[in-house]
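G., the chain you wanted modeled:
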Amino acid sequence: MYILIDGANFSAIYLNSLDSTTMKMNVRMRELLEYAATETWKPSFSGRAQSVVEAGWIVGPNGALLLRAMNGNSWSGEFDPSEIGHYEYEVNDVYISLSGLRGDMRRYLPRAASRGLFFARRMLRNASALEGGDRLLALVSIFADEDYEGFFLQGATVKFFSRRGHYPDWFEDLEGFQREAIAILDLADVAGF
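Predicted structure as tokens:
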């Protein structure tokens, strides 16, 4: 099953999606979302993530879909057009702080997953009108190994890339990611958002 997130109050709506052909997730993400569905909570952003939302998207070199806030001077914009998906993946790499969630450890990881998915859906929706936006994917990754010494230093990572040219394809087996709760979304997962 997967969850659609209502921006007004994080109403978790279960869909019959164990058979879903859209959102893919590993068992760790599924467990977090099943727990998150038992509460009403509105994900929010601050700092860097909020500035990424506000800055929005641009169409960059060779038609690459780029988050304006992430496309700085460190990116030359020169890349082989056949590598467009890989280029987008490298540029569109957003760290979302989870420091405000630390108060309640029982809800920390489910809320972390909710925050990451909320951000991904919002940015996918915002990119939907751009040329190539219909082929955009979002990868949401939450470090979920609570026994790791640096656990609280981790945040949510959300990366965006399109299925154009060569693009990351190493996410076919999400269960191979043992320390992360991970999901891949596309535009179909934004319906009703």
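Residues 140 and 158 are 5 Å apart (CA to CA).

Shout if anything looks off.
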